[in-house]
Write a structure and sequence with these properties.
8-stranded parallel β-barrel; alpha/beta; 36% helix; globular
Length: 434
C-alpha cells in the first residue's frame, strides 16, 4: 500500500530533489493529512531535525506543526530522532511508529569487525517503546547507508545493514537517495535485493513515479512511501489504493467490513473495483450485490448511508476495514448493526456528546441542555460530583449519580471545545509515558 509523506522544512510542507534542492512548497498540512489518511498511513518527516537544524531545546521551525499532526491520522514520524526520550515523547503525542535514521548506525565504522549498529541505543529504545513501534531507515547512496540528512555515507552496505537493522525494527524504510524527487522511478534491483535479504516489512521510497511501479512493488511484498508523485498529480491515492488490492485472490470481490468511528462493527459486504471507485467518488460506502449483479451504495433507498472516514486493507490485501459515520441503522431490518437487534446506536460518551452538540446547535422547545450557561454547568458538575461521592450508597445510586455527572461534564467539555477523543488522547499519552 502507499504511505503518503508530509515532509516539513522551515515550517512549510516541501519536496526536495536528492534531499537538497527545493522543488515545491505548500502550507496546507492539515488539509493534506485529512486527505491522505483516508487511504492509508501517513509519514510526517521533520527535515530540519534530520539535518541537525535545531535550537538549544532540540526544536525546529516544524516542531509545533509536527505535534499538531500526530493525532490527525495513522501517523509515523521521523527526522532527527537521536534519543530514547525524544522517541517516547513522539509516541506519547500520538505517533504510532518512529523512524530512526542516523542514530541507528555506527557512524565511525572503519573495519568489517566493527559493529554496524548503535546497539546500545537500539536496545534501550526497544525496551522503552517496543520493537513494533520502531522503523529503521536504510537509506542508501550508491549502495552505502546514508546518514546526517543524507549528507554523508558510512562504511555499511545496504544489505548487510538491513540484515542487522531488522533485529530491532518491525519494518525498514529504504530511500534510494539518488532517485529521490527525480521522478525517474526507483532502483528496482536494490529493492528486490533488500526484499530478499530480510523478513520484516519493507517500505520503498525515492523516485517512484507511476501506478505500474507501485503495483510492481506491491507484488514484491513492499509498501511505497510517496511524495513528489502525489504532489505533482502523477499518481493519486485512490488509484494506488485500488491497484494494491488482491482481487485475484478473492475472485474479484473484496470483503469490506464497516465499522463505526467508535469501533462497533456494523455490517459486511463485498466490493469490486467499480464499487471502490464509487466509494471514493461519493464518500459513501458502496458494495456490489452478488444476487442482483449491480453496484449499490448503502442507504440509497433508506437514506441510512455510511459516510467513509478511512479505508484500510489488511496485511494480505484481500479484506478492507472501512471506518464510517453511520446515518441511521446499518441493517436492512432497521437495526443499528447487522450483528444485533437493537434499533438504535448504543450509548457511548461520543453519542452523548453528539446529542449535546445537536441540542445547542438546534435548541428544541423545553430543552434543558440548551438552558445551561457556563456558570450553571460548572455549578452542576460540582453538585453532581458531591452527590456521587457523599450520597451514593448502593450500586444503583453510583450508576445514577455517575450518569448525571458524565452528562454535565460532557456539557462543560462541549462549551470549552474539548471532545472525548481529546481526553482519550491525553490518557493514551500518560499511559505511553510510563
Amino acid at each position: 500500500m502507499v504511505i503518503a509523506s508530509i515532509d516539513m522544512k522551515d515550517g512549510h510542507v516541501v519536496q526536495l530533489k536528492n534531499g537538497k534542492d527545493l522543488m515545491l512548497q505548500r502550507d496546507d498540512a492539515d488539509a493534506l493529512i485529512n486527505g491522505f489518511n483516508k487511504y492509508g498511513e501517513v509519514a510526517v518527516i521533520d527535515l530540519d531535525a534530520a539535518m541537525g537544524n535545531t535550537n538549544e531545546k532540540g526544536n525546529t521551525p516544524n516542531t509545533e506543526l509536527l505535534k499538531s499532526l500526530l493525532r490527525k491520522g495513522n501517523v509515523r514520524t521521523g527526522g532527527g530522532i537521536r534519543s530514547v526520550k525524544k522517541a517516547r515523547e513522539l509516541i506519547s503525542l500520538g505517533a504510532e511508529k518512529v523512524i530512526i535514521g542516523s542514530a541507528a548506525w555506527n557512524s565511525n565504522r572503519q573495519n568489517e569487525s566493527d559493529p554496524i549498529l548503535n546497539v546500545e541505543f537500539l536496545e534501550e529504545l526497544t525496551k522503552a517503546i517496543g520493537r513494533q513501534r520502531i522503523i529503521i531507515s536504510v537509506d542508501a547512496i550508491n549502495g552505502k547507508i546514508a546518514v546526517k540528512g543524507w549528507k554523508e555515507t558510512v562504511n555499511i552496505s545496504l544489505i548487510e545493514g538491513a540484515k542487522e537493522a531488522e533485529k530491532y525494527a518491525s519494518e525498514l524504510l529504504f530511500t534510494c537517495v539518488e532517485k529521490e524527487g527525480c521522478m525517474e522511478g526507483t532502483d528496482m534491483e536494490q529493492v528486490k535485493a533488500l526484499r530478499s535479504a530480510v523478513k520484516c516489512r519493507v517500505v520503498a521510497a525515492g523516485g517512484v513515479n507511476s501506478l505500474e511501479q507501485i503495483t510492481e512493488l506491491e507484488k514484491l511484498g513492499c509498501d511505497v512511501q510517496l511524495g513528489m508523485a502525489l504532489y505533482t498529480g502523477v499518481v493519486n491515492l485512490k488509484d494506488a489504493f485500488i491497484s494494491c488490492l488482491n482481487f485475484e485472490k478473492v475472485d474479484g470481490m473484496i470483503p469490506v467490513i464497516a465499522q463505526s468511528v467508535n469501533g462497533e462493527v456494523l455490517m459486511m459486504g463485498y466490493s469490486n473495483r467499480e464499487a471502490f471507485e464509487k466509494t471514493f467518488e461519493t464518500g459513501k460506502l458502496t458494495f456490489f450485490s452478488r444476487t442482483r449483479n449491480v453496484l449499490w451504495t448503502k442507504g440509497e433507498t433508506s437514506g441510512h448511508f455510511l459516510q467513509v472516514v478511512k479505508l484500510r486493507a489488511d496485511c494480505d490485501r484481500d479484506t478492507v476495514l472501512a471506518t464510517v459515520i453511520p446515518h441511521g441503522g446499518a441493517c436492512h431490518t432497521g437495526s443499528w448493526t447487522c450483528f444485533g437487534s437493537q434499533p438504535d446506536e448504543r450509548s457511548t460518551l461520543e453519542r452523548l456528546y453528539a446529542v449535546i452538540s445537536e441540542r445547542f446547535a438546534n435548541p428544541r422547545p423545553g430543552s434543558y441542555t440548551a438552558t445551561l450557561n457556563d456558570k450553571r454547568v460548572r455549578e452542576k458538575v460540582m453538585e453532581e460530583a458531591e452527590e456521587l461521592t457523599d450520597d451514593a450508597e448502593t450500586k444503583e445510586d453510583v450508576i445514577w449519580e455517575a450518569a448525571d455527572l458524565l452528562y454535565f461534564v460532557s456539557v462543560l467539555m462541549y462549551k470549552e471545545g474539548v471532545s472525548w477523543q481529546d481526553v482519550y488522547n491525553e490518557l493514551d499519552r500518560r499511559h505511553k509515558e510510563k
